[in-house]
Amino acid sequence: MTGRSPAALVTLGEAMAVAAATEPGPLATGTPLRLGWAGAEATVAIGVSRLGHTAAWTGRVGDDAAGAMILAGLRAEGVDVSAARTDPAAPTGLMLRERRTADRLRVSYYRAGLAGSRLTPEDLDEERITGARVLHVTGITPALSATARAAVEHAVSFARAAGVTVSFDVNHRERLWSRAEAAEVLARLLPYADIVFAGPEEAALFVPDVPEDEPGRMARALTRLGPGQAVLKLGARGALVATADDALHVRPAVPVTAVDPVGAGDAFVSGYLAALLDGSPVEQRLRLAALSGAFAVSVPGDWEGLPRRAELGLLAAQDVTR
Questions:
Q1: What are the phi and psi torsion angles at 250 (to 5°)?
Q2: Model confidence at 317, in pLDDT bands (50, 70, 90)?
Q3: Is the model's pLDDT at 202 over the cut of 50?
Q4: Amino acid 322: pLDDT
Q5: From start to end of 88-193, where are the E strands?
Q6: Is 131 helix (H, G, I), strand (E, B) or coil?
Q7: Distance CA 159, CA 25 (A)
Q8: Angle, helix 40-50 to helix 65-76, in steps of 10 degrees
Q9: Could you read off the pLDDT of 214-247 as tens digits, one per residue?
Q10: Tag placement on the chain: N or C end, fewer CB within 10 Å?
């Protein structure tokens, strides 16, 4: 990392090209598609960058047009990709998004054995991790391959030893692995996490004895497994945070017209972590997280709708604190 300024947030994971149908109906010859790209960790890096903090992303893309598009897009958003790898041995992954009906999306992934899944511990820039204030990982990357899993496990253990705040979004994907396997693997990450993000179904991977309709209890139970903060994302119902001192903070969602729900959770995380980097208290972290999520769902695409600081006032009228 010599000669480079440290990034406040460092993240690692998979990014892939996206071909998204622009009109409702089954995919068929002549279906109009919009080309773009996406990735959970990359979305968080973009969100944090747009909100005024430096961010870096590590991952692998293919030595192809899709990979070049992804890296150029991240650079354009101010995200440092100097530690990313272009893999000549595997192409960039692909996501197909079909608008099967006007209000139902259907997603297909082509990622097994492709560039994003070939991440290894050797790809990590340890000096960059120790220079960061926050390391952010998700439960998607460990599901991609044994080497990607090892990379995440090495990153969180290395960051924790260096005193870097570790953020972990469970982000369970049932198409990638079973709940039983996910619970076994991801439970190993919890003791390294300072902050864990989850939905009720994801939290149930680790605290199956707590009813999902009691999110406050679920969040408190998660803090007893290691994280100092457990953030439960409740969708349209808002979110809540339990802290290690048993405090509970609740935040309603910001009411907006939802256009595309994909990426809302990652947008929420980016707002929370940006406010953490601001030095804001938990209540303000939840506020910025809720605003970021509301902006994201109001625009088609995973990350395109993420807000900049100057835009936050656009939803001020809807941001009603209860």
A1: -120, 140
A2: low
A3: yes
A4: 38
A5: 94-101, 104-110, 134-138, 165-169
A6: helix
A7: 46
A8: 30
A9: 999 999 999 999 999 999 999 888 899 999 888 8
A10: C
Q: Is 188 helix (H, G, I), strand (E, B) or coil?
A: coil
Q: Of 123, 169, 266, 302, which is the active-site residue? A: 266
Q: Is residue 278 among the annotated active site residues?
A: no
Give the chain's domains with CATH numbers.
40-63+83-92+116-305 (3.40.1190.20)
CA angle 144, 147, 148 (to 5 degrees): 45
Q: List, edge to edge, every strand of the sheet that includes 165-169.
A: 79-80, 55-58, 9-12, 134-138, 165-169, 195-198, 229-233, 239-243, 248-251
Report residue 145: phi and psi, to 5°.
-170, 170
Neighbouring CB atoms inside 10 A of 225's CB total 14
Q: What share of the chain is helix, strand, coil (3-state, %, to 5)?
A: 40, 20, 40
Tens digit of each residue's pLDDT (9 = 90 or more) over 22-75: 888 888 898 899 999 999 999 999 999 999 999 999 999 999 999 999 999 999
- pLDDT for 62: 98
Check the CA dihedral 178-179-184-188 and report its sign. Answer: positive
Summarize the confidence of residues 311-322 as an average pLDDT.
66
Give the integer Cα–Cα distance in Å for 223 and 221: 5
pTM over 0.90: yes
